[in-house]
Write a sequence for this structure.
């Protein structure tokens, strides 16, 4: 493969001041190695004949891959844009945890050196499709890499009936319900007491948040299952939240359907650290 004909998109978390400084360093590093650069119009300016500026509708599908400068939240946001076009992404962490990112800002040259030498592989990550059907409206579909969360807008407990395969799994009384991918199993679901699930596993995790009954636990369902949710008439101001970022207000009578998406996130993996080594380092501060 001729890596010197590739166009690398660079996406900035504009709320992090360090991202623009790091971004310009990354641009110079890649340009010096013969790569073209794609930037989202309106983020930053860098005058060079090998730098192209694209609108949002083009930026997430045109480059051969996209480098994300930010934390896990930034990468999740980009993943939901790129998945429709199968554009691979990788991140340099400017956030706190950086579990999904490939490198740290203070070692960006090492990260990019591996990339420019072609020392990487692409890992497919399962995503969720969440279809919401409101009364007298067309259904609308959303995608999520980590999770779909259902909760009350306030602090009230709620009753959620979860169904699959034409049967009721359970009616859960809790602060909410998380439906997670294996990727999302180390996110909010883990904080709510859910299991850690290896990313290549084809499953979905149903995890109640602070359940009221002693026997309520997480459920692990096959990846080809279709989950539907129902709510009691007493419920008000229900929120469906995708990856902790996209909020959709629904009513008790609205339909919510969650299943494995036909789209996936393609993560560029640059280092040889295993998933479980990464898990220990990022979540336990162990030294490998």
């Amino acid at each position: 493969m001729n890596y010197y004909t590739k166009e690398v998109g660079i996406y900035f978390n504009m709320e992090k001041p360090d991202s623009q400084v790091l971004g310009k360093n990354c641009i110079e590093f890649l340009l010096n190695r013969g790569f073209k650069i794609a930037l989202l119009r309106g983020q930053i300016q860098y005058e060079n004949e090998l730098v192209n500026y694209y609108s949002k509708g083009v930026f997430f599908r045109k480059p051969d891959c996209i480098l994300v400068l930010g934390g896990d939240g930034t990468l999740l946001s980009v993943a939901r844009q790129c998945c429709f076009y199968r554009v691979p992404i990788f991140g340099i962490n400017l956030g706190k945890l950086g579990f999904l990112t490939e490198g740290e800002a203070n070692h960006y040259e090492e990260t990019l050196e591996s990339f420019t030498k072609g020392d990487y592989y692409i890992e497919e990550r399962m995503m969720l499709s969440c279809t919401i059907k409101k009364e007298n409206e067309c259904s609308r579909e959303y995608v999520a890499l980590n999770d779909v969360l259902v909760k009350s807008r306030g602090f009230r407990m709620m009753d959620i009936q979860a169904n699959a395969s034409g049967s009721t799994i359970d009616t859960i009384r809790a602060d909410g319900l998380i439906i997670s991918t294996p990727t999302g199993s180390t996110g909010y679901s883990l904080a709510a007491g859910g299991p850690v699930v290896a990313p290549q596993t084809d499953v979905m995790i149903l995890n109640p948040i602070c359940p009221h009954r002693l026997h309520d636990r997480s459920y692990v369902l096959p990846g080809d299952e279709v989950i539907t949710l129902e709510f009691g008439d007493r419920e008000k101001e229900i929120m469906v939240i995708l990856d902790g970022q996209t909020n959709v207000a629904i009513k008790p009578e609205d339909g919510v359907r969650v299943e494995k998406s036909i789209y996936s996130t393609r993560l560029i993996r640059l280092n040889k650290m295993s998933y479980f080594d990464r898990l220990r380092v990022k979540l336990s501060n162990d030294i490998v």
About this structure: Residues 1-5 have pLDDT under 50 and may be disordered.
